[in-house]
């Protein structure tokens, strides 16, 4: 009987901490999670190359213009 009470309390505590951690990470992400090292925001859609019509990532454009 006592074992089940402690086990339920432990499971409840772990669940609350996990859900609370996920909510915190998604509502207040760190600055390093918003942009990469070149300053390009994550989840930026690709741009279309006007000459070929192919999509090019913004990260590739930044590296190209930086000379890398």
Describe this structure as you would to a colleague.
- The chain is mainly alpha-helical and 68 residues long.
- It has 2 domains: 1-33; 35-68, no CATH class.
- The protein contains 2 helices and 2 strands.
- The protein has helices at residues 2-27, 58-66, and strands spanning 47-48, 55-56.
- Strands 1-2 form a two-stranded antiparallel ribbon.
- The protein is rod-shaped and about 75 Å long.
- It starts with a helix and ends with a helix.
- The model has no long low-confidence stretch (mean pLDDT 88).
Mean pLDDT metric: 88
Beta-strand content: 5-15%
Query: Structurally, how many domains make up the residues?
Result: 2
Question: Roughly how many Å apart are the termini?
Answer: 65 Å
Provide a count of the helices.
2
Spatial sequence of strands, sheet with the most strands: 1-2
What is the global morphology? Answer: rod-shaped
Helix content: 40-55%
Low-confidence stretches: none
What class do helices, strands and sheet pairing give? mainly alpha
Sheet having the most strands: 2 strands, antiparallel
Kindly state the number of beta strands. 2
What's the SSE pattern?
Answer: HEEH
Query: What's the alpha carbon Rg, rounded to whole Å?
Result: 22 Å
Quick tags:
68 residues, mainly alpha, two-stranded antiparallel sheet, rod-shaped
